[in-house]
Amino acid sequence: MNGRIAQKLGALLLCAAFCVLSFACGGTKTAEQARPAGPAWETLEVLSETPVRYATEYTIRQLSQGYELITIPATGSLLLVPEGMGKPADLKDDVAVLYRPVDRIYLAATSAMDFFRALNGIGSVRLSGTKADGWSIKEAADAMERGDMLFAGKYSAPDFELILKERCDLAIESTMIYHSPAISEKLRDYGIPVLIERSSYEQDPLGRMEWIKVYGAILGKEAEAAALFDAEVEGIAAIGEQPKTGKTVAFFYVTGTGAVNVRKSDDYVVKMIEAAGGAYAFSDLSSGSALSTVNMTMESFYAGAKDADVLIYNSTIDGEIFTLAELIDKSPLFSEFRAVKTGDVWCTGKNLFQEPMGIGRLIGDFYRVLSGEGSDGLVYLHKLN
After folding, report:
1. What are 289-323's pLDDT values in tens digits?
2. Cα-flanking dihedrals φ and ψ of residue 154, to 5°?
3. Predicted pLDDT at 297
4. What is the rounded CA–CA span in Å between residue 92 and residue 72?
5. How far apart, in Å, are the Cα atoms of 184 and each of 100, 110, 175, 189, 193?
6. Is 19 within the bounds of a domain?
7. Which of 55, 110, 266, 353 qualifies as a cystine partner to 207, CB 3.0-4.6 A?
8. Cis status of the peptide bond prior to 101, with omega within 30 of 0
């Protein structure tokens, strides 16, 4: 094939791809234009606001004529338009529009899937930013195996052609999208609203779980979301009524360079340990950065945690371990820790951070470990043998 023919072929292929994307995008715009004219934005009144007990990263307001406004201060607002209604006239540019029913979501924020599972709403997620083998949530993996949910590329390299072909009505991104801002801008250019999931920024663990109310609003299941959240809070309150165990806990993992990564003393995991009646071994640990964790040398970790009653290894970054020998292989110094000598060392499962609705169960696991009830019935922890 000579150069001129190859050049023409390349131009034809580029043109074809552009036509496919333009057709799909045009379909989205045509659907919007076909809707009836909405009321003037300034005529919509705030009728009520969803009660929020712990979360600080969002508000949900119910407006007149069935409209609903989700505001995430750090990223903008999302206006939920009732089925059969139109976009309000003179709507502010920083307010994205989402038409109900919402049933063709592209979900690139893995932690949000658990909210959809809890609300029996996984069927509303048509496109995933995670492959089937990357899900610890069985319902999501099963949906992908059946073809009910399709892999549409990770957050930083989405398959725009598939996303548009599937008439995606909402993209839910984690804050990792901040590293690829052009992606979210392109989605918006194609008429797809973007919600940036910020539950991980909540300082209170119950605030993270309370984000179920955001997804309840999107799916039209506000009452179900509130009931699920209240039930979880009630279970956690029952644990809090138990006597403090008085046991100290170190929560950590060993990095590839041999440093030890630990949670800062105001982190939400520390608050869960305290809710379970424990005391964090590094109670005054902080740093000037916005990160929730700190790396320290093995020697510094030994100095602060050698006498801790319980060690809990965080497997979500470095992978799960199952024996004390595996832990000691990471550093011989672990053999000198009190918890290793007494055999009170535990490891989290890989599913820990994909399931924010499991916060109550995790606090329950912490309590069972700290109160000496043993490993029976644990969901997110297993003992190192």
Report:
1. 567 789 999 999 999 999 999 999 999 887 899 99
2. -70, 170
3. 96
4. 15
5. 21, 17, 11, 9, 9
6. no
7. 55
8. yes
Residues 6+ positions from 147 with CB-CB distance below 8 Å: none
Question: What is the secondary structure of 114-132 as a DSSP string?
Answer: HHHHHTT-GGGEEEESS-G
pLDDT score recorded for residue 32: 57
Indicate if 42 and 156 belong to the same structural domain: yes
Q: Which residues pair with 72 in a beta bridge?
A: 76
- Is residue 62 domain-shared with residue 210, that is, in the same domain? yes
Which range marks the domain in which residue 202 is found? 32-232
Question: Which of 232, 261, 296 finishes a domain?
Answer: 232
Structure tokens at 133: 């083998």
Number of domains in the chain: 2
Nearby residues of 54 by Cβ (< 8 Å), 6 or more positions away: 202, 204, 206, 207, 209, 210
Q: Which residues lie closer than 8 Å to 329 by C-beta, 6 or more apart? A: none
How is residue 195 written in tokens? 């919600």
CA distance linking residue 375 with residue 305, whole number of Å: 22
The answer to whether residues 252 and 226 belong to one domain is: no
CA distance 155 to 179: 10
E strand spans, the chain:
46-49, 59-63, 68-72, 76-81, 95-99, 105-107, 125-128, 150-151, 170-173, 194-196, 248-254, 260-263, 279-280, 293-296, 310-313, 345-348, 381-383
Section 217-222 average pLDDT: 97
Whether residues 192 and 43 fall in one domain: yes
383 SS3 class? strand
Asked if residue 197 has pLDDT above 90, the reply is: yes
One-letter amino acid of 309: D
- Examine the domain organization and report whether 298 and 374 are in the same domain: yes
- Shared-domain flag, residues 215 and 256: no
**Residue 65 C-beta-side C-alpha neighbours within 13 Å:** 17
Q: What is the pLDDT of residue 288?
A: 59
Q: Residue 367 and residue 10: Cα distance in Å, rounded? A: 63
> In which residue are the tokens 């535990």 written?
346
Q: What is the mean pLDDT of the chain?
A: 89
**CATH value at residue 258:** 3.40.50.1980
195 and 300 fall within a common domain: no
Residue 167 near residue 192, CB atoms below 8 Å: no
